[in-house]
C-alpha cells in the first residue's frame, strides 16, 4: 500500500513560525473545498497544540472537540467518534496524525455537499493511489462513513458487501474490475444504498 504523502511545513526565519507553503495550501483547498481562511484558521489551532506538526490521540481529541461541527462536537458519544477517526487517519499506525489528515477528517465528518464528500472518499479509499477503486477499497469506504458510530453493525456491513458485489458490474462500465472517479460518482448518486451512505 502506498504511503500517504504528508504536507511539508516550512520555517519562516523572520518570525520563527511554522507555516503552510502556498503550494500545499492550494492542494488542501482543492482536496477539502475549504477556503484559504478556513484552512489557515484550522492550521493555527492545530499548530498551537502540535508544534512538531503531529497530534497524539489526546491532542487530537481535544482539538477535534474544539473545531469540529457542533452536531459532532456536542455528541455525548464524541469520544468514541474521535478514537475511531484517529485510528483510521493514523494511516502508518505511528500514534500521530498530521495536519493534512486532521483537516480531511474534519471535512469528511462535517455536514456538506455529497459531491464534496465523494471526491474526498475516493481519494481516501484509493489506497494504492492508482486512480481507481477496487471492490475491496469500496468496502473500506463503508467503514470510513461509519466512523461516527459507536458500534459497527457487522450484519449490516455484510449486507453492504453483498449488495456491492451485486451492483458493481452495473457501474463498472469498462468491465475492468475497478471504478474510475466518474463511475464511482455515478454509483453513489444513483444507487439508493450508496446515496444513504454518503448523505
UniProtKB/TrEMBL annotation:
One of its GO terms (molecular function) is calcium ion binding. The keyword Repeat applies. Residues 77-112, 113-148, 159-194 form the EF-hand domain. SMART domains: EFh. Keywords: Calcium, Lipoprotein, Metal-binding, Myristate, Repeat. It comes from the Eukaryota. SUPFAM superfamilies: EF-hand. PROSITE patterns: EF_HAND_1 (PS00018), EF_HAND_2 (PS50222). InterPro entries: EF-hand-dom_pair, EF_Hand_1_Ca_BS, EF_hand_dom, Recoverin. Belongs to the recoverin family. This is EF-hand domain-containing protein. It comes from Rotaria magnacalcarata.
